[in-house]
């Protein structure tokens, strides 16, 4: 069964360091979403791609976060510099056309 | 960011009991979805609803799309220990030609054997 892949699964870093997360969506899925999920809350959208184009990054803290999907397939989310408040689960999801979105296992980030 | 209101926030129930939870929004959606998330994992889609008033089942799970299109309900019958997790609702809307999902605050379910 096709799945969304994410790596790493866990990341511990010190504040002010740079971190990067990778997502490989289900093959053929043109839409890719990055969400941040703070403990005890639901996922909140950070950035949405349609193929290689960003269609919504209104909630992305652009002073420290960046995201790219250069070839319209896999995607990277970067934080530089990381802050204590960035500790959260970072989830990637993908969808095709009118289908529902499917999530990857997430990357749990802890900033010390 | 916007989040939908889910209730209850948490539930502790005995194995075999039925569970009901709901999700409300101030705006209407054309699609409602229910996800389950286990610790350290991403949400897994349980049920999708596409039409106001629709009632859809998936095994012991039944979900309904509210008539007003501003709410949805999830029922779990005869709960078992593996039902433990956090249940999230999500409303889906079209914005600028693409789909966007707004998630609820979650209902944490614990089942006592």
Shape of chain A: globular
What is the structural class of chain A?
A: mainly beta
> Largest sheet of chain B, if any?
6 strands, mixed
Q: Report how far apart the termini of chain B are.
A: 37 Å
How far the N terminus sits from the C terminus of chain A, by CA atoms, comes to 37 Å
The number of helical runs of chain B is 0
Radius of gyration of chain A: 13 Å
Total beta strand runs of chain A: 11
Q: Helix content range of the residues of chain A, please?
A: under 10%
The average pLDDT score of chain B comes to 94
pLDDT averaged residue by residue of chain A: 95
Q: How large is the radius of gyration of chain B?
A: 14 Å
Q: Kindly state the number of beta strands of chain B.
A: 11
Succession of helices and strands of chain B: EEEEEEEEEEE
Oligomer: heterodimer
Largest sheet of chain A: 7 strands, mixed
- Written as H for each helix and E for each strand, in order along the chain, the element string of chain A is EEEEEEEEEEE
DSSP helix fraction of chain B:
under 10%
Biggest interface, and residues per chain?
A: A-B, 27 and 26 residues
Question: Keyphrases for this structure?
Answer:
heterodimer, A: 112 residues, mainly beta, B: 113 residues, five-stranded antiparallel β-sheet, 58% strand
